Prior knowledge:
Blueprint: E1 2-3, H1 9-19, H2 24-36, H3 40-46, E2 54-59, H4 64-68, H5 73-90, E3 105-108, E4 112-114, H6 126-133, E5 137-139, E6 147-155, H7 159-170, E7 174-183
Parallel strand pairs: 1-7, 2-3, 2-6, 6-7
Antiparallel strand pairs: 4-5
Helix pairs in contact: 1-2, 2-5, 6-7
Amino acid sequence: MWTMGEYAGPLRSMIVSWKNGARMDAGQVLMDASCRLLPPVPRLLNDATPPPHQLAIVPAPSGFVRSWRGLFVVGLFSDCLARTLGNHVKTEHHDTLCRSVTASEIVSAHVLRRRGGPAHQRGSGLRDRQRNRSHRLRCVADLRDWDVVICDDVVTTGATAQACIDSVTGAGGRVRAVVALAHVPAIGRGRDE
Length: 193
């Protein structure tokens, strides 16, 4: 799993402002920064056997209202990652971390959907988050022969990331990495806002 840093201080403030719609400009700053710090993802893909030919960047699902309001920040982050990785491949970027990523197709694929359960996990502990996300996601696409990078905004307990992994692998995809803007260092104690 790769994140830009701990969900604290200025990073937390920027993520919360973006997610709440108070500072949409913060989203562009976060996405630009995360894409500049991206080399660990191509390195993970370089180690993949066989090397990826089709790569899907799959965002963790969000609620309908958040998407409708234009606040599906994980989807925007997914789109940014796909564009950035695509640029690395298309320009044949030759630094040591990116040169062997040979995916012929890189897409941002919003293919995970929720199946009931609470819309938010704010304030929930580890057990509640795991129970809320266990078997509550479904993949609406056939991902056979696709390598997948799952992305999320904040990883708190890992329950959502694990549910995404389970859904993607159930649809035939090979999860190569999980990428997030931030992580909560004390598993089970943080809040995902």
